[in-house]
Structure to design on (123 residues):
């Protein structure tokens, strides 16, 4: 009986640790300004984003599910052009300390892929 209670307690603690870690990693950690060789990607808590490259920028909305971020362009300034709100980009991300790595999962907008993928550092 004592072994069953300990096993159940251990399982509950492990489940709570993993459940807590997952939600914190996706939402909280992505919010901020990320820099990739002068390209600044601002991810806001209200699920909006802005890519800033010199005097040009692209803004839009994003959603997060587990370790994937889906982005949709809405507006552009300067020389930048949006991919259009009908083209969603899906990317996988990994955070290691203050480093964010983005890889493509699926995106039909080739111009965006070149801008999004890479390694960013938290400012």
């Amino acid at each position: 009986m004592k072994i069953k209670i300990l096993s159940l307690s251990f399982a509950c603690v492990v489940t709570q640790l993993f459940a807590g870690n997952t939600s914190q990693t996706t939402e909280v950690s992505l919010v901020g300004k990320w820099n990739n060789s002068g390209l600044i990607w601002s991810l806001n808590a209200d699920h909006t984003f802005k890519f800033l490259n010199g005097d040009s920028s692209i803004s839009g909305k994003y959603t997060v599910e587990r370790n994937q971020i889906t982005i949709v362009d809405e507006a552009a300034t300067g020389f930048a052009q949006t991919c259009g709100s009908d083209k969603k980009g899906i990317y996988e991300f990994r955070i290691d300390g203050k480093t964010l790595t983005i890889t493509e999962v699926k995106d039909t907008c080739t111009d965006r892929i070149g801008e999004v993928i890479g390694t960013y550092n938290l400012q």
In short: Residues 4-28 have pLDDT under 50 and may be disordered. The helical segments are 2-30, 110-116.
